[in-house]
Write a structure and sequence with these properties.
275 residues; alpha+beta; Ribosomal Protein S5, domain 2; acetylation; mRNA 3'-UTR AU-rich region binding; cytoplasm; Ribosomal_Su5_D2-typ_SF; rRNA processing
Length: 275
């Protein structure tokens, strides 16, 4: 495994399994904790922690008030940020965000935009005067591959946990008034779920790759779908090309994965909802 890691993996792949015992199309154990049951970010308006095997990601959403942009007077803002601190893996260093963190942040921003999970018009409080800004901080605590799937899941779970207070503008003073006693859940219009694959030897696809598998792969691809089976995004940063048939296989598996994740998140939210 140390001297010839690729050959070591190929021996397992020929038998349609992996060194960790999983089949090629099998995901690692996935868990999610939402909100206060986390004992995590008490200052956030919504939070979630997701574990995908050893990969652990936490997401905190902070809502603030701001004036809308002049050219988007009826829209609020969503600002995602992915952090890969040095504590999560030896490959990352302290300091400004590296290339991988920046690429992940852009990917999350694209998923939010393409899936329309949150419509920015829903974040507007008073046209041209006041709107919500959602700062979505996604921090990797332990990195063992497949950051994108875990990040999208953590973001979705955290957003479903957000409760925004009622805000009105006093017509006499022109100042905003916040009613913390009356809160409403954030409107989530779509539920995007990411499913990532690693490509081995240009032809073989394995789902939910570990960090070691990502390093040995000849390429990766991430498919994002919503609850209607609609394709929201295909993220393929170079590497081996995919045939149309292989891509369709990925999309079909992604749709199945979406049902699994939706079922999991619904179960957790039901368990923490006051009866």
């Amino acid at each position: 495994r140390t001297v010839e890691p690729l050959e070591y993996y190929r021996r397992f792949l020929k038998e349609n399994c992996r060194p960790d015992g999983r089949e090629l199309g099998e995901f690692r154990t996935t868990t999610v904790n939402i909100g206060k049951c986390l004992c995590s970010i008490t200052t956030a308006d919504g939070s979630a922690l997701v574990k995908l095997g050893n990969t652990t990601v936490i997401c905190g959403v902070k809502a603030e008030l701001a004036a809308p942009a002049v050219d988007s007077a009826n829209k609020g803002y969503i600002v995602p940020n992915v952090e890969l601190p040095s504590l999560c893996a030896e490959r990352f260093r302290s300091g400004p965000p590296g290339e991988e963190a920046q690429a992940a942040s852009q990917f999350i921003a694209d998923v939010i935009e393409n899936s329309q999970m949150i419509v920015k018009e829903d974040l507007c409080i008073a046209n041209g005067k006041l709107a919500w800004v959602l700062y979505c901080d996604i921090i990797c605590l332990d990195y063992d591959g497949n950051l994108l799937d875990a990040s999208v899941f953590a973001l979705l779970a955290a957003l479903k946990n957000v409760q925004l207070p009622l805000v009105t503008i006093n017509e006499e003073t022109g100042l905003s008034e916040v009613n913390l006693k009356q809160k409403n859940p954030l409107i989530i219009r779509k539920h995007p779920v990411a499913t990532s694959f690693a490509i081995f030897d240009d032809t073989l696809l394995i789902v939910d790759p570990t960090a070691e598998e990502e390093d040995l792969a000849t390429g990766t691809v991430t498919i994002v779908t919503d609850e209607e089976g609609r394709l929201c995004s295909v993220h393929k940063p170079g590497g081996s090309p995919l045939t149309g048939a292989k891509l369709q296989d990925c999309i079909t598996r992604a749709i199945t994965r979406h049902k699994e994740i939706k079922k999991l998140i619904d179960k957790v939210i039901k368990s923490i909802t006051p009866k």
